[in-house]
Amino acid sequence: MNIAIVVSEFNDEVTSRMHSVAKEKADSLKLKITHTCHVPGAYDMPIIVDALLQRKDVDAVVTLGAIIKGQTKHDEVISHAAAKTLTELSIKYQKPVSLGISGPGMQERHAYARIRPVAERAVEAVLKISNQLKGLSN
User: Fold this and answer.
1) Which of 44, 56, 82, 138 is the most buried (most CB within 10 A)?
2) In this structure, are residues 9 and 41 in contact, taking their beta carbons and an 8 Å threshold?
3) How far apart are CA 83 and CA 80, in angstroms?
4) Residues near 58 by Cβ (< 8 Å), separated by ≥ 6?
5) Under 8 Å CB-to-CB from 14, ≥6 apart: which residues?
6) Which positions are annotated as active-site residues?
7) Is residue 10 within 8 Å of residue 65, measured between CB atoms?
8) DSSP category for residue 42
9) Order of all β-strands in the sheet with 2-8
10) Using CA atoms, how far apart are residues 126 and 69, in angstroms rounded to an integer?
11) At 46, is the secondary structure helix, strand, or coil?
12) Are 93 and 54 in contact (CB under 8 A)?
């Protein structure tokens, strides 16, 4: 199975580690990473995910990001917009798009604690959903 990974550069100290964990997990599951794209933030992911989902060499997309709470509710706006649009793209193309974006409402220490579980589950999710879709098409 060919996957693409889209990584947010915002909160890079967290997301770069998430990316390393996701690559390890993909290797252990025998998934081929055909594309890796870096975007400024989680809000910027959908346009790149859309382009990737149109490619024949991409069966699924893993998104990785960390949205840390600031002094406003901006984290909630970004999280909801990204999740909604990524879900719509997954449905539109009938290809899995995982939500490996931690937040909203978390503090920086929570983001660090979630690096491994969120990144691993994001990779596992695209494989599981892809297998489910294959089973439904038979």
Assistant:
1) 82
2) yes
3) 5
4) 2, 3, 4, 34, 35, 52, 95
5) 66, 102, 111, 112, 115
6) 74
7) yes
8) G
9) 32-39, 2-8, 60-68, 97-106
10) 27
11) helix
12) yes
Instruction: Using only the alpha carbons of the chain, give its radius of gyration.
Output: 14
In this structure, what is the dihedral angle of CA atoms 108, 100, 72, 84, given to the nearest 10 degrees?
-170
Pair of tokens at residue 130: 């892809």
Distance of CA 29 to the CA centre of its chain: 17
CA distance 68 to 93: 30
pLDDT in tens, the chain (138 residues): 999 999 999 999 999 999 999 999 999 999 999 999 999 999 999 999 999 999 999 999 999 999 999 889 999 999 999 999 999 999 999 999 999 999 999 999 999 999 999 999 999 999 999 999 999 986
**Do 111 and 11 meet the contact criterion of CB atoms below 8 Å apart?**
yes
Is 2-137 a domain of CATH 3.40.50.960? yes
Quote the tokens at residue 24: 């390890």
